[in-house]
Automatic annotation (TrEMBL):
Pfam families, alphabetized: dCache_1 (PF02743), HATPase_c (PF02518), HisKA (PF00512)
Protein name (database record): histidine kinase
Subcellular location: Cell membrane
PROSITE patterns given in the database record: HIS_KIN (PS50109)
Topology in the lipid bilayer: Multi-pass membrane protein
Residues in Histidine kinase domain copies: 383-597
Alphabetical list of InterPro entries matching this protein: dCache_1, HATPase_C_sf, HATPase_dom, His_kinase_dom, HisK_dim/P_dom, HisK_dim/P_sf, Sensor-like_sf, Sig_transdc_His_kin-like_C
Coiled coil: 340-374
Keywords: ATP-binding, Cell membrane, Coiled coil, Kinase, Membrane, Nucleotide-binding, Phosphoprotein, Transferase, Transmembrane, Transmembrane helix, Two-component regulatory system
GO MF annotation terms: ATP binding
Assigned EC number: 2.7.13.3
Keyword Membrane: yes
Length: 603
């Protein structure tokens, strides 16, 4: 009972630890992913805001020099000095209209020293600037004091957003009037919006009063980032900067703070389409006195958060499972260690038994190979006796003749007979040595075998039987040097066995021809030895069984092991032995072996 209670307490404690670890993993993953995402967005926003500032400055800079160039033209001075002359004013209007088309600006107009426009590029339009008073505009006040001016505002006549560049027109050091070039920032807004869409972010530009006048989102335009107090509304109405456009407050949380030192903030902006969270990065544009805000949407980051937390939870659970598995595995290893030691002892004992069995099996295989050799020698014994008896009979005859020659003092004839007797003795020694080599047990050592020599040695064994049976032998071997790697004695046994079988198969044939060829395969590094006879061939039913142990087509002699042993010998030399019937008569045995060394003799 106490043990069961302890196990339950252990499981409860383990569950609490695992749950706490999971919660900590989820919290850490969320914190890390959000901070990393914000850092990545901040780096990207830094690049984006620099690119956008550079683009806007370049677009505005191309118009900045235009008022100064125009102000130097004497036609403006003449027009200001003769403001009552309709002809002069008409020329001035035509000139400003032509300049407006060339510079692709929105409007160009000239005011006198009181701020009243006397000529304009839109002189022929319904909402012409002529006779309009612009003395209240800061860009006029700045130019009247003798300096170039710039200002953003909504036109009181055209009701279009524009950026104004102004320059004084001097005559004898006195400011006669002000030339103004208005740039339509609606086009600039469209181009900037295209850049923002490509970068997958939003942007807005605010003036020193925190009023948004340029934005990639329409309903943000003409909204105030900061609260609109009564004093601020009065100041906006007095400046007429936004003409009659209504200004509203942007629904932004937390409240927009222009005094903070940090330039990276997270805001929630609410509109009719819903609430979106943005990471805002801002930068002051000193030339235009604007503040550019780049707002990267946080929605993609938040949408990826569940996947990241799920992945973190999965990794945590996998780690827990791995730890539990490792603990359990260690326990199992301890339990299995004793069993392993016992099993290892049994394996050693069993291995010794298998080694003894393998040694016995190898000895048995060697005995079978030797028995197969002796069987072949037994079947050739009559021919061997004939091959040995011929030299022996000749030796006896030459010995008797030599005896006679010596009795008659015919020493030269006796000397010739002795020479022939020595040659006959050498021949007997070669025959006996070849048979001795064939019948000895193989040492199992592989070496390089000259194939032509191996074929000749095998033919030496069966030559007596070939002569006895009246077999016509034709041999075609390689002219160059060709070596294979293997056991010389065992290869010789295979050749003798197949040739002997061919001679036996042709015993009842009217035509007895044995053809042995050795050639190199055309498309591979293989040696092909072909042994063809003119016997009855192999019946189709026996073709698949011919290399099986104890299968024989001649029940009166042999154990049926010759071809089976031959097949194993060839396979041990990485080769292959096959049999097929000739189209005319007889069987063809083919032995394929990898070539170790080949040197062809070029003609």
């Amino acid at each position: 009972m106490v043990i069961a209670t302890t196990k339950i307490q252990y499981k409860i404690l383990l569950s609490i630890i695992l749950i706490a670890g999971l919660l900590l993993t989820l919290f850490t993953s969320q914190w890390y992913w959000l901070n990393k995402g914000k850092s990545d967005i901040s780096i990207q926003s830094e690049k984006q805001i620099n690119e956008l500032v550079l683009f806007i400055d370049q677009q505005l800079a191309q118009f900045e020099i235009i008022p100064e160039v125009i102000a130097s033209n004497p036609i403006l001075q003449q027009g200001l000095l003769a403001a009552k002359d309709p002809h002069k004013i008409a020329q001035l209007n035509a000139y400003l209209s032509e300049l407006q088309q060339v510079t692709e600006s929105s409007d160009i107009y000239l005011t006198d020293a009181l701020g009243v426009a006397i000529a304009a590029s839109n002189w022929d339009k319904k909402n012409t600037f002529i006779n309009q008073d612009y003395s209240f505009r800061p860009y006029f006040i700045e130019a009247l004091s003798g300096r170039a001016g710039r200002y953003y505002a909504v036109g009181t006549s055209s009701d279009k957003r524009g950026f104004y560049f102004s320059n004084p027109v001097f005559h004898n050091g006195v400011v006669l009037g002000v030339i103004v070039v208005k740039v339509d920032i609606g086009v600039l807004e469209q181009q900037s919006t295209g850049i923002a869409i490509a970068g997958q972010y939003e942007f807005m530009i605010s003036d020193p009063d925190d009023i948004i006048f340029l934005s990639s989102i329409n309903h943000w335009r003409f909204s105030s980032l900061s609260p609109l107090s009564q004093a601020k509304r009065y100041a906006l109405n007095t400046s007429k900067r936004y003409a009659t456009r209504p200004i509203s407050e942007l629904a932004i949380k937390p409240p927009y703070n222009t005094l903070t030192e940090a330039n990276l903030h997270t805001y929630q902006i609410t509109s009719s389409s819903g609430t979106e969270t943005y990471l805002e990065k801002r930068q002051l544009m000193p030339n235009a006195n604007w503040t550019l805000h780049v707002l990267a949407p946080m929605k993609p980051l938040y949408q990826s958060l569940p996947t990241i937390m799920l992945l973190a939870a999965s990794l945590y659970l996998l780690l827990v499972l791995f730890i539990l598995y490792a603990i359990e595995r260690r326990k199992n290893l301890r339990r299995m260690l004793h069993a392993h030691n016992l099993l290892e002892q049994r394996v050693k004992e069993r291995t010794l038994e298998l080694e003894k069995a393998n040694t016995k099996l190898k000895d048995t295989q060697d005995e079978l190979v030797q028995a197969a050799k002796l069987t072949v020698i037994g079947s050739l014994s009559a021919s061997i006796n004939h091959e040995l008896n011929q030299p022996l009979a000749a030796l006896r005859s030459y010995a008797q003749n030599t005896q006679t020659f010596l009795g008659r003092d015919m020493f030269d004839d006796a000397k010739n007979n002795l020479k022939i007797m020595i040659e006959l003795t050498d021949r007997l020694a070669d025959i006996i040595a070849q048979f001795k080599s064939f019948t000895r047990k193989s040492q199992g050592k592989d070496n390089a075998i000259e194939i032509n020599q191996a074929i000749d040695q095998a033919l030496t064994i069966v030559q007596p039987e070939i002569d006895k049976q009246g077999v016509i032998l034709s041999k075609s071997v390689l002219k160059g040097q060709c070596q294979i790697w293997g056991d010389t004695v065992r290869l010789q046994q295979v050749l003798v066995n197949i040739i002997s079988n061919a001679i036996v198969a042709m015993q009842q044939s009217s035509v007895k021809e044995l053809k042995i060829t050795a050639s190199k395969a055309a498309r591979s590094n293989k040696l092909i030895i072909s042994i063809k006879d003119t016997g009855p061939g192999v019946r189709e039913g026996q073709m698949s069984k011919i290399f099986e142990p104890y299968f024989t087509t001649n029940e009166r002699q042999g154990l049926g092991l010759g071809l089976s042993i031959s097949q194993r010998i060839i396979e041990s030399m990485q080769g292959k032995i096959t049999v097929e019937n000739d189209n005319q008569a007889g069987a063809i045995f083919k032995i394929s072996l990898p070539i170790y060394l080949y040197e062809d003799i070029k003609p």
